[in-house]
Amino acid sequence: MTKSGLLMGTMVAVLALGGCNKTPEPPKTETESGAMDDVVTASANPQVGGAAMAPDKTILANAAASPILSQLTAAVNQAGLADTLSGPGPFTLFAPNDAAFAQVPAVTRDGWARPAQKVVLAGVLKYHVVPGKLTTADLAAKIDAGGGKAALKTLDGQDLTATKSGEAIILTSASGNKAAVTQADMGQANGIVHVIDAVLLPKM
C-alpha cells in the first residue's frame, strides 16, 4: 500500500469510528441574547461567524469573508476548486466550519496540504457539493418522499444520505460518519450554503 493510501485509510477509520455509531443531537444556535436554541438558523440576511452572506456574491466569495469558514476556503483553493465554486452553478454546498476541520486528525490535514494529495482533497470537498439548489425545505421533502431518507448525488458522483433528527437535517457519508446542519438556507449568487459540524468522508 502506498503512503497516501495508508494515510487515507487511517483517516477514514478514525473519523468513521468517531461518527458512524451516533446520531448528532439537533444543533444548537446562539441567539442575539446569547441563549442557545434548538433551532437551525435561517434568516433573510444570515451571517456566518459575524460575516453577512451576500446573496449577490458567489459561494466562494462569501465563504472567504467568513471567519469560521477559513479552513474550507483554504482547502478549496488548495484543491483547485476555486473556479468551480465561483462558477454559475447552481450548487448546494454543505460547508464544514473551522471546528469541523479541527476534528480531522492533524496528520490527515497535513497530508491534504501536500501537492501530492491535491486530488484526494478535491474528492473530499466535491463530496460536500450537490448540483442544484436545495433548501432545507427541499431536503425535508426529499427525505419524506424517500420514507425517512434521501440519497443526494454529489459532485464527485457518490451518494450522500440525508435524514432528519427532529427538525434537524443529518447527513451520513458513504464512509459512515455524520454531520448536522447547524446553519441553513444561505442564498448565494450561484446556489445555497448550509453550514455543517463535521467533514464528511466519501469512499476512497
From TrEMBL:
<dbReference type="InterPro" id="IPR050904">
    <property type="entry name" value="Adhesion/Biosynth-related"/>
</dbReference>
<dbReference type="InterPro" id="IPR036378">
    <property type="entry name" value="FAS1_dom_sf"/>
</dbReference>
<protein>
    <submittedName>
        <fullName>Uncaracterized surface protein containing fasciclin (FAS1) repeats</fullName>
    </submittedName>
</protein>
<dbReference type="InterPro" id="IPR000782">
    <property type="entry name" value="FAS1_domain"/>
</dbReference>
<dbReference type="GO" id="GO:0005615">
    <property type="term" value="C:extracellular space"/>
</dbReference>
<feature type="domain" description="FAS1">
    <location>
        <begin position="56"/>
        <end position="200"/>
    </location>
</feature>
<dbReference type="Pfam" id="PF02469">
    <property type="entry name" value="Fasciclin"/>
</dbReference>
